[in-house]
Amino acid sequence: MALQEFEQEFVAAWEGHLPPYFGRQAIETLFPGMISSKTVANLESKGEGPDGAYRLGGKVVYKRENFVRWLVDRGFHPRSTQDLLVASGQRRNAHGRG
After folding, report:
1. 3-state secondary structure of 74
2. Which of 7, 17, 24, 86 qualifies as a cystine partner to 60, CB 3.0-4.6 A?
């Protein structure tokens, strides 16, 4: 399924701020307020987690592109460019938070 323009912007913004690979424990730091590592673990146990996750030294590791695309596919994305900028920390929202 092709991504809409704002979804493409979301993917590009997050991919620009994330390491190529990251562990499950880093999810809450990398995606504050969007999704928890426990939620991802629960979804994985049901076969609904990101594609390509693997174990490295007993830890679950994700590839950046797969994880961000999975977020978009699950509906975790902003509805506008302004929301995208706030989510990526590039712009503050109307309440001065960002």
Report:
1. coil
2. 24
